[in-house]
Design brief:
The chain is an alpha/beta fold. Helix content is about 40%, strand content about 25%. The protein contains 10 helices and 10 strands. Helix 3 packs across helix 4 and helix 3 runs parallel beside helix 5. The chain is globular, with a radius of gyration of 19 Å.
Length: about 250
Amino acid sequence: MIEVKNIEKSFGESKVLKGVSTIFETGKTNLIIGQSGSGKTVLLKSLLGIFTPDVGTISFDGRVYDELTSDEKRDLRTEIGMVFQGSALFDGMTVEENIGFPLKMFSDKSKSEIKDRVNFVIERVKLIDANQKKPSEISGGMQKRVAIARAIVNNPKYLFCDEPNSGLDPKTSTVIDNLIKEITEEYNITTVVNTHDMNSVMEIGEKIIFLKEGILAWEGTKKEIFKTDNEAIIDFVYSSNLFKKIRKSQNKGE
């Protein structure tokens, strides 16, 4: 569990986060959504320790980040997996080498142990016949699988995903969404996904945090979205006719 208490973050005279408080639950896919400029990327980077909030605290299973020593912060970082927006794979490395990189950097495992663990996560994310290929030789969807495999190879307690479906077609996006959800439940990870993809919200939104102009304007589940009277989230989600139809049909079925 990650608990955020009243965090604020400004850059110069611009206040980006304005007293955000929430809990990201363990074993669930927690989604951060909002328009461009809403503060969701700043919130994600604050959770990762890239930005330090001006006010408030962030706790990882009771450990307040700002109260940790340098060694304790370093240990915490080994418990974090990250899937970057553009996958951020090393072009000169094979799939196998990309996935094994965190183990070489942050563990004392032997070469054979690393190979075994890499092969295990490769099989888990269903990367078939890709071990010795370079990122340029595989599809965008497979690159995302590599990024997810690399993120979980260290058995993280916390998984962060920044726009994991960016650049993917709808069918592949759904596959990646479901993979993230499966891994979250299987390993009981606290997963936080920063996304603008409303299909992801409908697929895996077990808890949704909606930011508007730096304020937490709404939070709930994908089912609760269809029933909310919150105008801010309604305007954001139901700007498309598709979601208006879904909401209408959901309400009729009650």
